[in-house]
Amino acid sequence: MDKMKAITFFDLDGTLLDGTSQITPEITAAVAALKDNQILPLIATGRTLCEIQPIMKASGIDSAIVMNGQFIHYEGKTIYSDEFTTEECVSLHEHVKQRGHELAFYNERRIFCTGHTGTVKQ
């Protein structure tokens, strides 16, 4: 998007998505109007990029701040990523495992769980 004048942030549930987690034609039209007026629509969510790809495609939004700010995707490109080191992941896993719990790791491409508990299956 050339020379944007402003930016607007969208949450997902109840904002960009309707009560059935769908993108309505009204939302698609509103996003197109924002772009026509040089306003960048951007999704801001705690979800991962891989989880919201269908939403981005359906809405016509190609920029997002995901994983609670750990990853920023702007017009198809990664412009910011803040990840734990391998050593930090190992340390966290050992700490949680000693207490009999499981852990979920995620990045913009995938989610990995150290175990498949009832909570994970839900």
TrEMBL record:
This is HAD-IIB family hydrolase. InterPro entries: HAD-like_sf, HAD-SF_hydro_IIB, HAD_sf. The keyword Transport does not apply. GO terms for cellular component: cytosol. The keyword Nucleus does not apply. SUPFAM superfamilies: HAD-like. Keywords: Hydrolase. GO terms for molecular function: magnesium ion binding; phosphatase activity.
